[in-house]
Amino acid sequence: GDSVTQMEGPVTLSEEAFLTINCTYTATGYPSLFWYVQYPGEGLQLLLKATKADDKGSNKGFEATYRKETTSFHLEKGSVQVSDSAVYFCALSLYSGGGADGLTFGKGTHLIIQP
Amino acid sequence: GAGVSQSPSNKVTEKGKDVELRCDPISGHTALYWYRQSLGQGLEFLIYFQGNSAPDKSGLPSDRFSAERTGGSVSTLTIQRTQQEDSAVYLCASSWGLAGGAQYFGPGTRLLVL
Fold first, then answer.
1. For residue A80, which of A64, A94, A60 has the smallest C-alpha distance?
2. Cα dihedral angle (A65, A69, A71, A77), rounded to 10 degrees?
3. How far, in Å, CA of B108 to CA of B114, rounded?
């Protein structure tokens, strides 16, 4: 079946450090890829997405590139802030004739940024 | 509405009782999804609707779980004869139902079964 694997953490970094959260996937078809973020006490928010190979999604200084050859979608940010502390989820979805299927999520990476 | 809304926000029930959880999607979104978030299992897909039809019910954990959607809008997730392992946050999301489309999540219903 389809699956997403990501580092679970917690990942602890100092403010202004470079961030990479690895995400790899297996899928039976050609998926769309997403990063969602869950801030403390809040719901899931879409951070960025990419729908085809070599697409780069970006938002709020975060970037991720859809790499079909390595089945990866790593999340990066050049300089993290305390406010980036949250749980980050990598996810994929496939599209069937009936519509967009449910998301398959990784287990989430807890990111802690220290001032 | 502006976003996905869910009710109740919290529900405490006794083992063996039935519960109904409600989701109101973003206006115009044709697809609606239910997920469950728990510490042990992470985020699990339960079921999705395209309009009022549910093409994929494969994620429902048991026959105690059912869902319906009427008028292409509001959906209810029903859990019959609740068990303690049903305790979790139940999340609803909606989208345009198109390939590559993002899903937008509601705040969730936190269910506690005593």
1. A60
2. -20
3. 19
CB contact under 8 A, A102 and B101: no
Residue of A nearest to B95 (CA): A100
Helices within chain B (DSSP H only): none
| Nearest chain B CA: its distance from A78 CA (Å) | 25
Q: Name the token pair of A25.
A: 């996937």
The CA distance from A87 to B56, in Å, is: 28
pLDDT tens for each residue of B35-89: 999 987 789 999 999 888 888 788 899 999 999 998 889 999 999 999 999 999 9
CA gap A93, B96 in Å, rounded: 14
* B-interface mutation test, from A2, A45, A101, most B Cβ less than 10 A away: A101
Q: B85: Cβ–Cβ under 8 A, 6 or more apart, which residues?
A: B113
